[in-house]
Structure formats: C-alpha cells, structure tokens
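User: what does the whole thing look like in 3D?
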Amino acid sequence: NAGVMQNPRHLVRRRGQEARLRCSPMKGHSHVYWYRQLPEEGLKFMVYLQKENIIDESGMPKERFSAEFPKEGPSILRIQQVVRGDSAAYFCASSPPASEKLFFGSGTQLSVL
Amino acid sequence: QKEVEQNSGPLSVPEGAIASLNCTYSDRGSQSFFWYRQYSGKSPELIMFIYSNGDKEDGRFTAQLNKASQYVSLLIRDSQPSDSATYLCAVKGGAAGNKLTFGGGTRVLVKP
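Assistant: Here's the predicted 3D structure for the full assembly of 225 residues, as structure tokens:
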C-alpha cells in the first residue's frame, strides 16, 4: 500500500507564475489536508477536503490560492501569481474515514525566484 | 496567545537519558492530542496519540495528558542519537474542528 504521494518534490517558479502541487492520498483515504511549513516553523493548516468538497478552508489565503479534490485524480493545490513569500514546504496528509490519524506525504518544496 | 505552544529548544540530552517535552494548548474543547516526529527535510510521522487524561506508553515513548491544566507531554526514555529530530505537538477538536493544529515544534539533540 503506497503512502501519500506528492509531486513534484521540488518546484521552482518565477514571480507571477502559477504553481500546481499534486497529492494522491493513500488507498482508502477520502480526507485530504494541506499544510504549509516555513523554515524552522511548525505546520500551518491551509485546507481540508473530501472528495468533491471543501470542508474547511479557514487557513487558505483569500487570494491566489485554491484547492480541489475531484472525484477522480489527485488533490491539487494551486497558487496563482506566486510571490517570494510563497516559498515554503507544502505537505499533504490523508486519513481514512472516521480516523483521527493523519499520514503525511513527502512534501513539495516550492521556491519562488 | 498561540493555540498550541512548545518550547523551540534545542533540548540537549545525553544518550541514554530521558527527554521530556512539553506542550500547552489554549482551546479547552480540544479532544485529541498527537505527537509527530520530523527529521530535517523530511515529512512528519506520527509517533503517539492520546485522548484521555493520564499516561499512555508505547515502547520508549510515554505521552501524558492533563486536560485540566491543558498540557500534554512526551517522554522519551533511553534516548538515542537517532531520536534527534523536531517533535511536533498537535491537537484536534474544539473550535478547530477536524483539522490538526500544530505547535512550532521542539528540536531535540541527543548527544552520544
């Protein structure tokens, strides 16, 4: 059973470009969470999704950021018109229904030049 | 006041000693409590979770929860150099709902 898969591992973008981060949850997991981590800091919650639904997006910046988890395919975190302050590690986590345990992917390191 | 607070460390312990990590949380409605370990450049991995007041032991790890005082701690017995990592405390429930809210982490250094 493969773990949570994130790609790409590293993503370099220039200011103003778009970044698309992908996350495939573990088999049987229907809940996906996105977190952002700045160097030497803890994980900051961004958004919680179930298939085709955004359950909690209270941690998402109001502009430029969006997330989806379609019926088929991976969850996507999309950042439009990236700025240097978006540079961070973005982690995806998944959990099965009725479970409180989160399993994290390896993360995507976004660098904005 | 941060929702989940941890001392950033580093907490330096000699090999074989007990490492004691503390975490306090602000939401009295929090119901579930987790400890994750994160090696530098890697993803967090779950090592312990606790729901009820008291102690919970798993191998060399013991989690302690005191809801009245709103703190949760992690003890690492017989510390090994491989335990050197950042330990993240996380809480769930209450106003935060289903998401995990993490503290800033405590860096632990185990010296041979």
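In plain terms: Chain A is about 0% helix and 50% strand. The first strand of chain A starts at residue 5 and ends at 7.
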